[in-house]
């Protein structure tokens, strides 16, 4: 089989680095170019020291980008939409890992991003990049917009419950605990180790932009509200979402299991994790490091109609590069797990 | 002024150690005895290495306990109630740091502890140990039951809002992020460093016993529900509670400020932390290490009627030994801050 | 190609778990049995939660062990030598990951282990398990004893210098910084998270048993002394060895480079890491997580004849399971990198 | 007693913040001014959030500095020597916490700092700021230069051995493990949390400037060499020095104990920590957080003439602000422990 020629626009950040690592080991891919203005001409391991001795690739400038079969965009938010028409000339297929094309509703974009979209007419050309929700559309898609990490974690935890309409759609409270890599590789006063280490920081108690994605994807006809907060903890990779939802009718564990099994029973990258004993009874992000899994667990509150849903991912994998590769596999007709076999570590 | 003679029953654990440290530097206290069966006869620094060169005190057995002015009980939960009548013979005043006498309602105890109380007739003799709520009762109290750490954090964050009845009393969702010292010094498979470090562990998504204390203390005539979850993170000391409450009517920041100022404006150990910029805009437990402060902050969700309340403490200080000493100062007629002046560190 | 039938004796510990993970993804291996007395009959993911959904394997008892092509021993130190004759009946080839057969000198064993070896006549039947030093012997070996993690890190850093006799053989000072997984999965008071987290603990300032392996492997005719200390830090995986050696004659960077290139230029799992700028100028264990690399760097002290050698590994990979698999590949005639391609992560 | 009027030049950094915290609680001190150009006019808690509600002090500009009894200089290295003559006009007594006046030998300064000293004629006017070595000179000193944190840790560990001449003066190898607060509050790519957390980074394998202080202070007539390396670990506060020294003659534990007791038996801030069992058998920085102690321990290598010395401090306390305050107490005739009573925490 001839290999697919891919390039990465914006390859010096954390997401670009992870994508590059995955693509280097993908059996059906040839990486043509990786761009970085800051490191133009330097070997890629200057930005990604884990790739020493893995490749001879060097960064080039975006202006040197050539045509290829498929282009991954790992540019900062706001950059992809500015140049999207040029990128479309370079490659027939595009997977954008930024937030620029995740929403298909202009009004929703404006409400959560506080500004007008540069090129709203393209919003509907992109398939929202969670394969578990949009696998069929992906098979024939030309453009995919990879989902936000917090959105992915939350949506995958809640989607079956919303779809089956067993919870009140507007009472959901979610808190995500996130690591420092979510903020990217740009350093600032808040990311300085003596300030950031040991923190439990309510960096976004309200108003997180990823909520817009949740509202879009969890809409099954009932008005959806997601009361969302994000807290930074002393961790580099990983997201854990604790979602508190309220059941319309009394349900038992087996009823909830059934719903999750119905939706996720055949999913290659979702595991329902709920054990009676042991240390790891519910999902934990550290076990998912470098894997593409989203683990989902739950617990019914014995004193009320609350159901607690716990979901976890590696934000740079299922929350970014891994999920983008999963989408790539689907749209390319490969086995969905190709290049994503790493199962995670223990202890870690 | 002659010093108050105090003893500590059960002084080899983390709470006992912190109490011992604080009492050693209290100007009006003389420590008579500290008990430990396991370390009977050994110097106290065998359990508390930070106290090397601070004292010549040795542990003695509980059976050797003599009369004193005031007795602190730092025994494991369930032990204090078994021997409370003997302890009452040893000291006229008792401060119990266990969970045994926190609830004054037998039914509530049975619901959350799953068993009958050994000596329910004494439940009403103990004042619940949060000074900000029960200061006046403490002045003349003989028996005080120090509050749970998660309960203290949550109650101090929510008390003004419940008292002023501006939120729906039964819609509150709370998630606490806790450190490993909450579990005490008994090691187990789950506290083994390779398993516990780096974790984000939903150790108690529902059913936490401290909820009973919240229900008791936040009751202002409306039916209270607290949807509570607890998550362990990679931290030793500290609790951060993120509470999601829902406003009955639209309110602005200044309205919320006013309520908190009304209730806490003169409180020596509560600070309202809410800043427009900087790294530490909301409360963070790491800044409170070794201090007795409870920091409280809040944010109104611009997209809904949700108010997010963020409260933080050092679980071994305001959540245990510090709060017990604060109560001791009040019942002894001392300045409430005596021995509790340490302001916390930065960076840390 | 028909697959090699392997079994693991003692598969519930950290080393056994990592070996199991690697073998599950090895294209030429079929895992027959994995033993654990404690978890007999349970699925392997009970001990290794990262292996959920990866395999249906269950633990069996050691007494049920059947014949196989090759047997990996991941038993606690001291157990392999007790039963080695029985294990030899089960499999023609054995790779032992314990310390039992690492030394080929009985006197050295007794000096460092403080007791007599149970079956000294077998010591010379085992090839010491660092492929970079013993590759040729491994090709025809029946028995391999995998090297200690601290020994591997130190030996790989120093081997070229000792071999080329450019340093005083008896003046070397080494300090390793190690993570908590080195201690295995048995919990104790010292591994309790509140005590172990944040520690910088001189757990073995002198007398570490791995020194015996260094003395054996660095012996090129000059009397060798390794002044070795081990310090635990707040890390789960990883070893960093800082070795201070003293040059017989003045040398420059290029001279040292040449020596390392001569010895390691073709090694698939060794990288010389020494950069002029950037964050990662010398080896760091965190970049090696889940990889089988040993990174080695160095710096010449401008004020003296000291050369500082810095070497790093993942203790569960190149320091245990990864190195054992590398040896397995060599003795089986496979490409040495098979199943060991994972390059490590960044950021992490 | 009338209070001493002090000011702090350069009070917005980590060292300035700790000094400010200590001085606020010192019974014989009144803080007049704290300068910061960046935060001129802002309350001090903007830089030091732990000081919320502790003081109404605001930062002022250095140009507004008034006369006072004693001036603390917490300016960046190189700034104090540029303006020292102006500072001398402001205050009769000065304690400089920078590196500018630590060395009394111009040649040594030039060798380690790579440039000429701006005002070498003043070098001998400053007493080197380790009280355990220079207490008598401090009593009448006008100018004190506070010692470097790594230098303090190493010197206090080794001083008795050098003074008693029981070790080879030129064979000492030292490795310090340091936290991120040593680098101050200026953020950069290397201090970015995803890069700095989890690191074991040989940031200065050779050539550390603090070595010059060691050479100066450990000189007892024999040529001194200190082979020094510094490694960053995932810690905010704390230094642990592991020093490998070589005994001229065979010695036993009691001989070493005797030397340390002779030198340090009456020292209020030094503890010899060496226990047969328990978790904390040797010094550990985490137990010293916020305390002014230097803990020193040792172990004799049974296989050689090596003695391993382990010493630990909190770099911002005994390594900076605490030691400066200790010197202040001595030169002011106060009890040396005033304001420095905090014993450290456990668990932490």
Would you tell me which CATH topology of the largest domain in chain A applies? Answer: Dihydrodipicolinate Reductase, domain 2
Strand elements of chain A, count? 14
Give me the CATH superfamily of the largest domain in chain A.
Answer: Dihydrodipicolinate Reductase, domain 2
The largest pleated sheet of chain A is described as: 7 strands, parallel
Cα(first) to Cα(last) distance of chain A is 37 Å
| Tally of contiguous helical segments of chain A | 9
Q: Class by helix and strand content of chain A?
A: alpha/beta
Which regions of chain A have little confidence, pLDDT < 50, spanning 5+ residues? none
* Most extensive contact: A-B, 48 and 48 residues
| Largest sheet, spatial ordering of strands of chain A | 3-2-1-4-5-7-6
| Quaternary structure classification | homotetramer
CATH architecture of the largest domain in chain A: 2-Layer Sandwich
Radius of gyration of chain A: 20 Å
* Average of per-residue pLDDT values of chain A: 97
What is the highest CATH level, the class of the largest domain in chain A? Alpha Beta
What proportion strand of chain A?
Answer: 15-25%
Describe what this molecule looks like in 3D.
- In chain A, α1 links the parallel β1 and β2.
- In chain A, strands 3-2-1-4-5-7-6 form a 7-stranded parallel sheet, sandwiched between helices. In chain A, strands 9-10-8-11-14-13-12 form a 7-stranded mixed sheet.
- Chain A is globular, with a radius of gyration of 20 Å.
- Chain A is built from 9 helices and 14 strands.
- In chain A, 27% of the residues lie in helices and 23% in strands.
- Chain A is of the alpha/beta class and 348 residues long.
- Chain A folds into 2 domains: 160 residues, NAD(P)-binding Rossmann-like Domain (Rossmann fold); 164 residues, Dihydrodipicolinate Reductase, domain 2, CATH 3.30.360.
- Chains A and B meet through β8, β9, β10, β11 and β13 of A and β8, β9, β10, β11 and β13 of B.
